[in-house]
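Job type: complex structure
Entries:
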Amino acid sequence: MTRLYESSLGELASALQDRRVTALEAVDACLGRITATEPSLHALISIQGEEAKLRAKELDAQGPQPDQPLWGVPIILKDLLAVKGAPTTCGSKILENFVPVYDAHVVEKLKAAGAILIGKANMDEFAMGSSTENSAFHTTANPWDLKRAPGGSSGGSAASVAAGQCFAALGTDTGGSIRLPASYCGVFGLKPSYGRVSRYGLVAYGSSLDQIGPLTRTVEDAARVLQAIAGHDPRDSTSVNAEVPDYLAALSERRDLKGITIGLPEEYWSEGNSPEVSKACQWAVDNARELGATLKPVSLKLTEYAVAAYYIIAMAEASSNLARFDGVRYGFRDKEASELIDMYTSSRTKGFGDEVQRRIIIGTYVLSAGYYDAYYRKAAKVRRLIRQDFDRVLGECDVLAGPVCPVTAFPLGEKVSDPLTMYLMDEFTVSLNLAGLPGASLPVGLGRDSSMPVGLQLIGRSFDESLLLSVAGVLERNLPRLPAPRGLA
Amino acid sequence: MKITKDETAKVAKLARLELSEEKLELFTAQLGDILAYMDKLGELDTSQTEPLYTPVSHTTVVREDEPARTVAREQILSGAPEDDGQFFIVPKIVG
């Protein structure tokens, strides 16, 4: 028998609406699972257990609301999304005691849809990292093998969903931070198009790159969450005022892949990928062909320049965004400092971890007089070329497919002391953020050598999450489902 | 691009960060490697290309400037390391 915490969000939502399960039972199932798994997983930074039970009781007293599609569904948020009255740390000492006075746009939307917040997920400090080892609080383990990294920076969100601690989590993706941990933890992760979801109330890292999206156990669950959080918000000037389609309808309408052209960028199917990743991804696209898709080899020639362009832009934007942490209005202040400038410097030096400091320094460098044109402006030009490359290829194909990452989850501690090696893990994910395109990671099997999950990356046209989700949905229905993560009891 | 310890220290100071001698050594080496990798962009001819700073085209939208009481002063001050109920308090500015 399937235990409640193992069911999908969709199954739970119907059971809640039909009163087969109460909101309190759903919350208790998650809190029980958190108690059982957190001592070994460390996926969360804070747990809002009492508030969640209280909210569940209120909802149960009112009874199910058919117009609230996430009514009674327990969810977890990456700890850089502002929740009124709940700590929002960004995985950083500098915000350890920060409690926002307002809800992020996505939090308002999830609450309006009836969801219940039960906890906030661990992350690399300020979303800077690919393994969640840069959290100032603790390192999250991979539920498939506790000695391996969950990926990052939304590693807590991915591990939590995989472990059954919640029915969906929100993460953020600046250069792959939803897709990489989704891939490593064997869950579905979607980075929507830039502008699809408002970032109001998201602590910014790279503002021209950041996007919020769902991590879930099924494609359909992600469609449900995206439906709730997508749409225009005047409080984020980059939020696009475009119609939000019915994602579930798009998903249920597509039964096969007839008429769909899937582009396979040769640079993503590189000789340098680990054989187990290539094999699992190849098997998935072979399945897509059997389901009617046409596979088309394409080339994204600028792929090898994407990491360099991405990190210049991301670090430049980070150095600017993180200037606001000065010990004056919120966050940590070094009370020893007796003079204002010293207070800024020592609060920031003691409050930020090494990776954040490294990125702020490089960002400051590439924006400084004499280097701006050579680095920042040059990267922005390459960014346009990368966008043009995608526009050309997506003119010929409906979606693109390739690995999310050249390897499966690596052992904790293996790469954390070598920043450049860690940056190169993002080779296949950063281009989408530069171009603003939607991308997903779909679990397609376990690697034959590591027995760790492999994610297939699907890339869509800007603002066409419907097609992306529906293609992912067809593949998901036709591929064997992954077993429960074996690292947990 | 080679970067010296003095340059690293100067940029850190601009960013209001202070590096210990040990960290200055480490960061200088790492920054050198990272910037050398980024120099790879120089291989591309971008003389005819305009920079792309954001994927969306409408970043200068404005909304109606309508005053509203969204949060109270006490709420805003509640997160401050030091305040007097009216203002944020900081250490003295001139020594």
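Summary: The mean pLDDT of chain A is 97. The radius of gyration of chain A is 21 Å.
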